[in-house]
């Protein structure tokens, strides 16, 4: 038998045997734990939670210093050079800023460590004491990460604040933590100046940009703040070096403010040991993770998913290239026509993403395919159908020549959107729909592994493995966590349910954080320490365990509301089912408990709805007018009903009436968080009149 035949036949035989097995691979196994009775699972490979993957390393500061010494001359942090900025005016008179960005310019690990040490010394020379707190209030960029590590070398606790945070939440976060130094960009400095009279403790502001906004001079001249550039702080430290004061594992590394999907944000206190345990756990899950990888960084570093991911990448000596969601691809909103987006230039091998972004990638690909039509669309549909058949059990064609054929003819162009080299994508922050997971997996030819965790658990909880071909699940427990389900009798979820135990998800392990800053009441409500000393966090999410020990998120306690006749509706579950409609960019289901039906606010997908209108010969002045037309509402509602039936929703779960909205929901509008989660209460208040009319 020739080597070629062996190479083709062996994977086919292995796949057939694996799929035919009645005993699926055990990824999680039951474990006896303390605390409230429930059904608990641990990672099948690790009998006890992992604390650190490196002997003698117990803090993020130690891990970073070791990486810089091991990979001194290797490229580390990359930022694109801005070539030019221009405004593009659309036909309706609106103006949009467009950027022409050049190649990536890189700092080596050695140069980055030098910058961090200089910044740490400069911070001390400015008069910032280690018992005082620093806030980083900026978009994701290399200075963000360098400032973070600089603070760690002085054992200074960093307060992380989303750049999109509104004024009230901003001054609340800064005042509550008594921040004395704020590190920000020029855009964020303008926001700080606007609320300077409401900030009680800020003494100094370090601007990441050389150009200090003109409106900041009045605050500085009044003697209220000292304003200095990031570069000048480095120079000050270079001229006046001081020794590091490294933290202990139990010291608070970060107070991370949530983006406030309900009310004012809460500050979660994370120790170095908390975050390092998650970094250590993830190390073993990404296949062949090594210093040859290139990571695309564009999610908010104020979010634990991105902060943990960048610490993982730095731990193995890989490169991190910075970008933004608005410049990610060649077709992104802020990229000048004819120039390249971040992913095209960087050509990353690793990415993290939140479901909303992956949904947009999916919709963008489908939009382009539909626009081409003809043979190109038929070929794409055929290729996708064949790949789906292979994955869903018709194993012939999953391996071998046919897969190579489709990848070369069809999916190569899709992969080029993200640079053409992506080999692994982590999705987190919210449940990822099975439709999107499978679509991206097929088109990119790379595993889309879904993780589950919260800010309160440093993003650690569960993580799906690359050989798990299922969709809609969040994987087995990370090696740093135990996952337990406890009964929620009121909602009808019990650990004795068949065929799978169900209940509220409770996470225990070294990654579970200390609690909420200056909020002992809320801390006691959701954090518990058992008789064995294990700390547990009660998530409020509802899950079920599959036979192989993998977790599936099926509900959320806060998202379950009751209709007039007693039926329970899970808002998140229904929204996840309906957002697959091609006409939907975003959606919020709303239930008035005094009525027997639900309604929905639907942000319409402009391209899809306008394409439909063109086929129907419908005339309209602008997109807002199209959304008001009765025909549009009927068409979109029909698509929601179809999606609901495909997802096997109950009749009472399907919105009876909808309101079409033309303007997207963005973090800047305040209607979604930086992680693109719905701010339900704010949306309800903003569109209160529309909701009232739907029930009228």
Describe this structure in words.
By secondary structure, this protein is an alpha/beta fold. The chain is built from 22 helices and 29 strands. It is globular.
Which keywords apply here?
696 residues; alpha/beta; Luciferase, domain 3; Rossmann fold; GMP Synthetase, Chain A, domain 3; 3 domains; eight-stranded mixed beta sheet; 22 helices; 29 strands; disordered N terminus
> What CATH architecture of the largest domain do you see?
Roll
**Backbone CA Rg:** 26 Å
Q: Any idea what the CATH superfamily of the largest domain is called? A: Luciferase, Domain 3
List unreliable stretches of 5+ residues: 1-21, 394-399
Using the coordinates shown, work out and report the CATH topology of the largest domain.
Answer: Luciferase, domain 3
Q: β content, as a range?
A: 15-25%
**Helix tally?**
22
- CATH classification, class level of the largest domain: Mainly Beta
Annotation, overall tally of beta strands = 29
Write down the domain tally.
3
Our measurement of the CA-to-CA distance between the termini, rounded to an integer number of angstroms, reads 75 Å
CA-based shape: globular
Describe the sheet with the most strands: 9 strands, mixed
Average of per-residue pLDDT values: 89
Overall helicity: 25-40%
Structural class: alpha/beta
Main-sheet strand order equals 4-3-13-12-14-15-16-17-18
In summary, what is this structure?
This protein is α/β, with parallel strands linked by helices and 696 residues long. It has a nine-stranded mixed beta sheet, with helices on both faces. Helix 4 (142-152) links the parallel strand 5 (133-137) and strand 6 (158-161).
């Amino acid at each position: 038998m020739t080597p070629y035949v062996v190479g083709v036949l062996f994977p086919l035989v292995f796949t057939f045997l694996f799929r035919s097995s009645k005993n699926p691979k055990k990824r999680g196994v039951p474990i006896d734990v303390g605390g409230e009775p429930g059904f608990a699972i641990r990672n099948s490979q690790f009998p006890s939670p992992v604390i650190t993957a490196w002997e003698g390393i117990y803090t993020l500061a130690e891990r970073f210093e070791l990486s810089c010494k091991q990979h001194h001359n290797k490229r580390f942090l990359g930022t694109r050079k801005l070539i030019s900025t221009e405004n593009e005016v659309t036909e309706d008179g609106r103006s949009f800023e467009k950027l022409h960005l050049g190649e990536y310019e890189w700092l080596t690990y050695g140069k980055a460590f030098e910058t961090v040490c200089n910044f740490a010394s400069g911070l001390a020379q400015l008069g910032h004491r280690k018992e005082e707190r620093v806030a980083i209030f900026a978009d994701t960029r290399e200075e963000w990460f360098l400032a973070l590590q600089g603070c760690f070398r002085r054992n200074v606790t960093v307060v992380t604040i989303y750049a999109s945070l509104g004024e009230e939440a901003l001054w609340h976060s800064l005042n509550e933590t008594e921040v004395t130094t704020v590190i920000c960009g020029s855009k964020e400095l303008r926001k700080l100046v606007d609320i300077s009279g409401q900030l009680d403790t800020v003494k100094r502001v370090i601007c990441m940009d050389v150009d200090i906004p003109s409106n900041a001079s009045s605050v500085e001249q009044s003697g209220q703040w000292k304003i200095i550039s990031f570069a000048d702080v480095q120079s000050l430290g270079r001229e006046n070096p001081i020794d590091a004061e490294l933290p202990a594992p139990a010291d608070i590394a970060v107070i991370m403010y949530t983006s406030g999907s309900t009310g004012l944000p809460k500050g979660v206190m994370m120790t170095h040991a908390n975050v390092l345990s998650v970094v250590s756990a993830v190390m073993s899950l990404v296949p062949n993770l090594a210093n040859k990888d290139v990571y695309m960084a564009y999610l908010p570093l104020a979010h634990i998913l991105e902060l943990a991911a960048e610490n993982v990448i730095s731990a193995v000596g890989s490169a991190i290239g910075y970008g933004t969601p608005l410049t990610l691809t060649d077709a992104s909103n802020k990229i000048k026509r004819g120039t390249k987006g971040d992913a095209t230039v960087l050509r990353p091998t690793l990415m993290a993403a939140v479901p909303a972004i992956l949904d947009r990638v999916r919709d963008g690909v489908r939009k382009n395919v539909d626009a081409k039509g003809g043979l190109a669309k038929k070929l794409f549909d055929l290729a996708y159908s064949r790949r789906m058949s292979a994955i869903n059990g018709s194993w012939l064609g999953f391996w071998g020549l046919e897969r190579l054929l489709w990848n070369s003819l069809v999916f190569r162009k899709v992969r080029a959107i993200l640079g053409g080299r992506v080999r692994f994508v982590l999705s987190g922050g919210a449940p990822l729909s099975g439709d999107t997971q499978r679509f991206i997996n097929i088109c990119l030819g790379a595993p889309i592994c879904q993780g589950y965790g919260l800010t309160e658990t440093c993003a650690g909880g569960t993580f799906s493995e690359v050989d798990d071909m299922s969709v809609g699940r969040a994987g087995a427990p990370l090696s740093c966590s135990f996952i337990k389900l406890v009964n929620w009798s009121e909602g009808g979820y019990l650990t004795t349910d068949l065929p799978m135990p169900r209940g509220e998800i409770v996470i225990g392990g070294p990654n579970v954080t200390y609690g909420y800053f200056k909020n002992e009441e809320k801390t006691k409500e959701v954090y518990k320490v058992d008789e064995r000393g294990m700390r547990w966090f009660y998530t409020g999410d509802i899950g079920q365990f599959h036979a192989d020990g993998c977790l599936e998120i099926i509900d959320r306690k806060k998202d379950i509301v009751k209709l007039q006749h007693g039926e329970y509706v899970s808002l998140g579950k229904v929204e996840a089912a309906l957002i697959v409609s091609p006409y939907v960019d975003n959606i919020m289901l709303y239930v008035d408990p005094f009525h027997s039906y639900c309604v929905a606010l639907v942000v319409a997908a402009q391209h899809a709805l306008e394409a439909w209108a063109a086929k129907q010969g419908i005339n309209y002045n602008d997109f807002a007018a199209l959304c008001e037309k009765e025909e549009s509402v009927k068409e979109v509602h029909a698509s929601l009903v179809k999606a609901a039936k495909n997802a096997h929703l109950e009749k009472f779960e399907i919105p009876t009436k909808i309101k079409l909205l033309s303007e997207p929901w963005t973090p800047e509008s305040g209607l979604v968080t930086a992680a693109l989660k719905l701010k339900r209460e704010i949306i309800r208040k903003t569109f209160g009149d529309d909701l009232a009319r739907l029930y009228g």
